[in-house]
Amino acid sequence: MKLVEFLAQVRDRGEYRSEEEAEHISTSVLRVLATRIPPEEADGLAARLPAPLDDVLHTHPERPEALGREEFLRRVAAQTGARPRTAEWDAGAVLSTVADAVPSGEVNELLSQLPTDYAELFGRPGLA
Q1: 7, 10, 2, 1: which is closest to 96 by C-alpha?
Q2: Whole-angstrom Cα distance, residue 58 to residue 46?
Q3: Percent share of the chain, pLDDT over 90
Q4: Average pLDDT over residues 39-66
Q5: DSSP letter at 114?
Q6: How far apart are CA 40 and CA 20, in angstroms?
């Protein structure tokens, strides 16, 4: 998926005013996600996403942090300057677009690395 297509989907799903806002939200959500998943998963996901979004996933720690959904959303809110409820909306807009951009098997592998309540953020509530 090309960057313009990815951001258009995020913009539509998140109802953002501009492509720049969609890119800021996408970068913020992916930055927090990179701290939560193993480096190999982050690198594999980065290979499927367009530049410059792929670079954000390469800024991961050596060991993933054990963030529950609420802490994940709190960190997204801190990155975006939003309220936690808005951060949930933002994360859903970005992560469901990621799920559409990445083959289903890879999404399932990624979700297997996360607590089950993350599945809804990826638009996969049936996997929760």
Answers
A1: 10
A2: 7
A3: 70
A4: 86
A5: S
A6: 29
- Give mean pLDDT, residues 76-93: 94
DSSP collapsed to 3 states, 74-91: HHHHHHHCCCHHHHHHHH
Q: Return the amino acid letter for 121.
A: L
Instruction: Give CA–CA dist 107/45, Å, rounded.
Output: 9
Matching residue, tokens 């300057």? 81
Whether this prediction's pTM lies above 0.85 is answered by: yes
Counting every residue written for the chain, the total comes to 128
pLDDT, residue 128, reads 47
User: Identity (one letter) of the amino acid at 124?
Assistant: R
Residue 123 three-state SS: coil
